[in-house]
Write a structure and sequence with these properties.
heterodimer, A: 111 residues, mainly beta, 6-stranded mixed β-sheet, 5-stranded antiparallel β-sheet, 58% strand, globular, B: 115 residues, 4-stranded antiparallel β-sheet, 55% strand
Chain lengths: 111, 115
């Protein structure tokens, strides 16, 4: 089952620009996480935001969460070519704690 | 440097053969997840263990797939018999879960090709 759905599916920007990716989900959650995956590698955790938080920052990353709209956004500021990767949101599903991933946004940052 | 270790990294096999993928979670972690990644379906949850007990394997085709945790340092995913549609990258991830599911640490994946 797919809980989170990212938008857009692909995003191409120039170095120095900001990149915004969105995630929508269907059921209530305890927290939402964002992960990054470089080509051919495993996923790497970026940031976790709890359901009672609205915004969280980590370095050049800013995540927002709107539980009334069941949506989240990931903003990468001042992007670099090294940010080129796929980005996934993941949500937990109730008491079992399953972590379900969306299909991801493929970000390409051109130097 | 703690990490999740998966073996094999690459596997090419013929249809009908048995395939076993292994995962060593990070020491002290109490949850283990198996995911399958394909271009078409993205990341699909196959199985989820907490304290070595299977909590959810609803995403796993039961007739040919099985997942186990013989001990806290080893998780296995077996496919028997394998089919071409099983070709994918299989990821294992582990985490330390309290009340809710937190950060997961992923292995580098096992790329399976079934001919």
């Amino acid at each position: 089952s797919q809980q989170g759905e990212e938008d857009p599916q692909a995003l191409s920007i120039q170095e120095g620009e900001n990149a915004t990716m969105n995630c929508s989900y269907k059921t209530s959650i305890n927290n939402l996480q964002w992960y990054r995956q470089n080509s051919g590698r495993g996923l790497v955790h970026l940031i976790l935001i709890r359901s009672n938080e609205r915004e969280k920052h980590s370095g050049r990353l800013r995540v927002t969460l709107d539980t009334s709209k069941k949506s989240s956004s990931l903003l990468i500021t001042a992007s670099r070519a090294a940010d080129t990767a796929s980005y996934f949101c993941a949500t937990d599903e109730g008491s079992q704690g399953n972590l379900i991933f969306g299909k991801g946004t493929k970000l390409s940052v051109k130097p | 440097d703690a990490r999740v270790t998966q073996t094999p990294r690459h596997k090419v096999t013929e249809m009908g053969q048995e395939v076993t993928m292994r995962c060593q979670p990070i020491l002290g972690h109490n949850t283990v997840f198996w995911y399958r990644q394909t271009m078409m379906q993205g990341l699909e949850l196959l199985a989820y263990f907490r304290n070595r007990a299977p909590l959810d394997d609803s995403g796993m085709p039961k007739d040919r797939f099985s997942a186990e945790m013989p001990d806290a340092t080893l998780a296995t995913l077996k496919i028997q018999p394998s089919e071409p549609r099983d070709s994918a990258v299989y990821f294992c991830a582990s985490g330390l879960q309290g009340i809710n599911t937190g950060e997961l640490f992923f292995g580098e994946g096992s790329r399976l090709t079934v001919l």
